């Protein structure tokens, strides 16, 4: 789908299920997304996963993040798409710790942003990240996002960040990455 310098952001496949399950049952990773680790068995998870691949929810697109050589290292999502308001929310996780702090997350965010601005009638992309997740905030700032507020949901404090098409550091018209 979208080829960055370090990653390829592409459609999810059944081959991604085992990694996704491992990441969604990992307490450290689920803490970073303010969720609880899954407690269902893998066969049940796989059954639901197959259904989700077949019937994607309207207003939501989920993608795999893979290295240039095809290794699945994370996921990103574009959801709450509202073309009438011209905005959408994104989320990302690099589940494979071997790829943390090496620019893979930023490359994935830039690739996703480029895809969204090129293919969806959107002028604003926003996200929320745990206030305690300074690494994520630094990554998003590197990609051009700026803090625009704070919110508390379910007892968790989040920093809201946004990126407007006209402030985007990427030249999405020409498809150039910074």
Summary tags:
178 residues, alpha+beta, 8-stranded mixed sheet
Task: Report on this structure.
This protein is α+β, with helices and mostly antiparallel strands and 178 residues long. 29% of the residues lie in helices and 32% in strands. The chain contains five helices and eight strands; from the N terminus they run ββαααβββαβαββ. Strands 1-2-3-4-5-6-8-7 form an eight-stranded mixed β-sheet, with helices on one face. Helix 4 (104-119) links the parallel strand 5 (87-94) and strand 6 (124-130). The longest helix is centred in the middle third of the chain and has 16 residues, at 104-119. It is globular and about 45 Å long. It starts with a strand and ends in a 14-residue tail after the last strand. The relative contact order is 0.15. The model is unreliable at 170-178 (pLDDT under 50).
């Amino acid at each position: 789908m979208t080829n960055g310098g370090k990653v390829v952001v592409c459609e999810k496949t059944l081959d991604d299920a085992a990694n996704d399950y491992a990441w969604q049952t990992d307490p450290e990773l689920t803490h970073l997304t303010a969720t609880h680790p899954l407690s269902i068995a893998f066969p049940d998870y796989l059954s639901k996963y197959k259904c989700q691949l077949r019937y994607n929810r309207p207003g939501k697109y989920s993608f795999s993040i893979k290295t240039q050589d095809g290794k699945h290292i994370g996921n990103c999502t574009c959801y709450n798409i509202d073309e009438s308001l011209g905005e959408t929310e994104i989320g990302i996780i690099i589940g494979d710790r071997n790829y943390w702090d090496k620019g893979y997350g930023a490359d994935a965010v830039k690739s996703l942003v480029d895809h969204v601005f090129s293919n969806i009638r959107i002028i604003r992309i926003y996200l929320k990240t745990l206030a305690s997740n300074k690494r994520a905030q630094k990554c998003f700032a590197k990609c051009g996002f700026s803090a625009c507020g704070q919110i508390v949901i379910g007892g968790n404090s989040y920093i809201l960040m946004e990126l407007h098409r006209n402030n985007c550091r990427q030249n999405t018209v020409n498809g150039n990455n910074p």
